[in-house]
Amino acid sequence: MSTRNIRSGSPESLARFPAPQSPPPLGSRKSNYALVKSKRRIGKQRLIAIFLVIYLSCFVLFTAFKRGGIEAYDFEHAARLKNKRGVAPPIDMQMGLSQIESVMASLPPEGGNLLVFGLGNDSSFWHDVSGGVVSFIEGDFADSKWATEWSDQVLFKYPYLDCSMVVYSTSMENDYERFERGGEALWAKELDLTSQLPLHITTTKWDVIVVDAPRGNKGSNGPGRFQSIYTARILAGLGTTIVIDDYERDIENRFSKLILGKEPVKVEKRSGRRGIGDANWQAYFEM
Prior knowledge:
alpha/beta; Rossmann fold; globular
């Protein structure tokens, strides 16, 4: 075909290159079909997106469960514990349910006096579950605001808790070998906190003493638990159960056996719970 025929708009050129057709008017059969088809395509895309969200959520929850995640809270186990004392452990409680059950089993069926080194969001649970005298001891470095600010937050939320503040003077980074070699004379001189405690704590016969403070995790530059472990021994009487939390750590493990002069009767392990705490061990010493 020649260029002349195309430019001149001859019938031959028009036949080969038809004029573009205008879209069908709104409301015609063709436009309605295109609209329905478009809506179906969008609907399919939404269904696929919803399916992917559900699939990914199930995958994340399953993975968390396998790794000891948020689903590690066993609601049936918690209900059994509630039946024993009338109070269910809160879902965000850092202790594992088996550990909680072991602490509860060490308390007398009726009442029971409980002393806890460490103030936390679970303190109200221990206050309610015991039925006897329940006291807490909190503290940190003398020049640290960390513990004061933390205790203020907890006591603002639970103003009815009995909490005594102490000053820890040790260093987990520098003092372990010194205290390990020092013996009873050095321990009595530097680790005894009883002079900082009120009379009702030093004179109460405690059924259970839980040592879960001060800070002793690696890299925290905390005081370590030399003083709380030693003071727990002083405050314990015949038949007292001393519970050492985070027993997998060096100070809690080796120093508690040195100070208490015995092996624990059992060690209760807790798997990690995402967003709540890493896996840990809890040792039970019968005095």
